Batch of 4 targets.
Target 1
Amino acid sequence: MEINPILQNVLAPPVLFFLIGAISVLFKSDLEIPAPLPKLFSLYLLLAIGFKGGIEIQKSGFTDQVLPTLSAAILMSLVIPLIGFLILRFKFDVFNSAAIAAAYGSISAVTFISAESFLESQKIAFDGFMVGALALMESPAIIVGLLLVKFAAPKNRPKSRKMHLSAILHESLLNGSVYLLLSSLIVGFLTASSNPSGITKMEPFTGQLFYGAECFFLLDMGIVAAQRLPRLKSAGSFLIGFAIFMPLFNAFIGVFIARFLSLGPGNALLFVVLCASASYLAVPAAMRMTVPEAKSSYYISTTLGLTFPFNIVLGIPIYMSLVSTIIPLSPL
């Protein structure tokens, strides 16, 4: 693997701001970002990538490559939690295993955005329809996680904690981030179809401001990730190893699926990153509400304190190296 892409990734402004945020915690700086701002920037990033993704899907259309790719994305978000659950059951009970597995079956939009920035810095083309895969991969893992609890949990679970299918679907499909991402995708698609001038009017908001907003959001993420690091001690070595092994394992599966789908290097990296990332927002919110038996320190500390920074700093260039190694060899 070439060292240059890793250095270029580490020295990119979003990653540097992430590291600056983490260092501020380690050195006990009084740097603090008011609570509403990270939420605002998170919503902005989801709106912008959804809007731009809808435009690109309208431009590319539902081609022979788009539909299989979106189907494969959904399939991976269903399979990954099942694999993770089987591994985690060696060490944890049903509740913690299902919650952690669901987090690793879902995705991280910020990791996806960082991968897009990496591709742009490497001048590698990718298609906007991959945002559709991002939007579709967040909910299925939540559904699988909750169904695992429903069918594998001890029979004597209190009735007050029994889950109904309608509640599972509502939480999975209408949580804030999924709703905003899908809605923005539709708005972008409709704007590109019927009102192209709207794209120009939105460009300063969804285009020129995007990179700066990403840097600011990652600054806050660095702070939060570093604050989570001490809680990793309670997770134990098994879960810490899982937090690094699972992304690499999922990336390995993802790159062969990308090869089977004949995706180009840019789209392949985005698909692999979606498979390798883990949710630290939507899934924890759903699990905290519906599976209170699971320890949030497990699934939040590992995804946010370990897997997320690993993917942002080292994972993306490692996955790109994997893509570059395997996909050119494909005779398909």
Target 2
Amino acid sequence: MKFNKKSKAEAGIPTASMPDIIFMLLIFFMVTTVFKEFRGIPVRLPAARKIEKLPGKRNVAYIYADDRDRVSIDDKFVEIREISRLMYDKMRDEIAPLRVVSMKIDERANMGFVTKIQEELRKAGGTALNVNYSTKTASK
């Protein structure tokens, strides 16, 4: 009489649900990841005692100016005389009209240079354009 050996039970990890877990993680990271829209140029922001946060980041243009009199709008270097035309075009955009300009000015920047930027913004939008100045919180 011949006896058959019983097969041994395999001790392995079931991988049937692995694709489901991978897709759930992938979707989680796709939904929760926020990409920084504009980097601008490196500036050293001045300190302030009180800071108000912008209500939202929609319809905001970011202007960076450093101590070497360079201006960057939405990650593009521009000349000062081009600012009014660019901002006017952004304000008249039908899909996402510009409402707020956020200025990030280096604390070592020349104030005459900053005044020229403000004059160009006035030419573009008059009083309809809100200007926000970015600072960092002062250490106590």
Target 3
Amino acid sequence: MKRLIINEPGLFIGVKKEMIVVKRKNEKILEISPLNISQIVILTRGATISSALMRLLTKYKVDLIIYSSSGFPIAKLSSTRISGSIKLRKEQYKAQDLPIGAYLTKRFAWAKVVNQKSLLREASRNRSNIELSKKLLEMSKSISNIATMIDNIEGNNANSIRSEVMRLEAEAAKIYWQGFKLLLPEGIDFPGRRKKFENPEDPVNIMLNFCYGLLASEVLLAIEASGLDPFAGFLHIDSPRRPALVMDIMEEFRQPIVDRVVLRLISSIKDSKSIIEERRLKRDFRFQIVKAFSERLSETLTFHGRSLPLSSHIFLQPKRLANFILGRENNYIPFTLR
């Protein structure tokens, strides 16, 4: 996926003869065809766009996403020329109260835990410190046992098993984040996992939260393309404030994408505190992190017998989920790296 990232205040993005034009103080700094990009990402509050640009983007089905300073997608421009998917959505809502709802609840949590296990196990093989390697391997085995326990939970619908699944998921997360801390370079402050609403002050949690916001927008776009309702989830309970199905499918991609990007970036930073100000990433570093995130999405991995960029796997998972809910597939295989 090719992105045009707007991260500088004062830029104007308009159109000239069917081309996207970016200007700084009336000076053209970029001209690009809408056929050559699939998304425009706006990270700054100071950019302006023209209505002609919005028309052009909808014509060529180029997404325009506006992010908050913490990395969460707050607005999206899309065409109104979309088709309805009434039957799929009715089956999705019905599935929440059926055994397949319990099955999907377990699948999403199981995938997250398996990917946590895989990341620690892989790290254990790459460490020259024998004691550290042994410790990471033990942690991965403990998490693997929890994955099996999640898989064995029985229930008739999503509600009947959600609390137990989440309890086990939290147990695995406690071990995982202890292991994740061991992978950070010496001197990096990481007090444990802190979510955005907890207002973390350390660079690692701020980076994680920013990248999870980027991932949420990728999953949201994929779900909307599939016809599923992004607000009707299985592992995560329905809420008008949070797209529960986005949170569900995100679980499959947190470790393979976000956690790996953060580990790569943090190891290349000399002074981790220099990248943040007032509990937010500095503008220059936001650009770097979006670039690293996009590069990770372009990396090819084999899953379900297909070697594709990670962005394509994200796009396909909601479609596979839709096929399962409609009875066109016998099972739903979540994205895992094992």
Target 4
Amino acid sequence: MVTTQQNLNLVTAAELKEKLDQDQVLLIDVREPGEFSAERIPGARLIPLSKFDPKHIPATDKEVVLYCRSGKRSEMAAQKLLAAGWNSVTNLQGGITSWKQAGLPIDKDANAPISLIRQVQIVAGSLVLTGTLLGAYVNPRFLFLSGFVGAGLVFAGVTDTCALGMLLSKLPYNQRAGQSWNS
């Protein structure tokens, strides 16, 4: 385990698996319900970052470990816990992506909505295509739509935040966290 800024600890996927097997960890998934319903680390509880409040973390004597897709959102949630007075918080290094790369088990729901990143790609691609076609055949001003979406994607990539993704995550079908889990 590596300690970083202000008592924010990092744990690798293999270390987390060992701790889960020994029942030493309260594992919190801070992704949105649609992402959680699609796949999750077995035993994780859902407390999405969009609704994250340190008061929602159940009292426990176990080590609290947070994770998301890549570790960025869970680091933001960890900062909220540290700001609320927690002495130490642990973040899964690389998020569920590193967990899957390590070949560790995940729970899946076959009826979950498609991933948020794919939804963003479909919406952004549709807007760019529409702007380009309208710009070519109706009025060149529609090309600004394609340029706006392109600038938004660049901003999302540089800052690792995606306003379109956050907006799509609020849609009702992305808010359900299906509970029919398959291994």
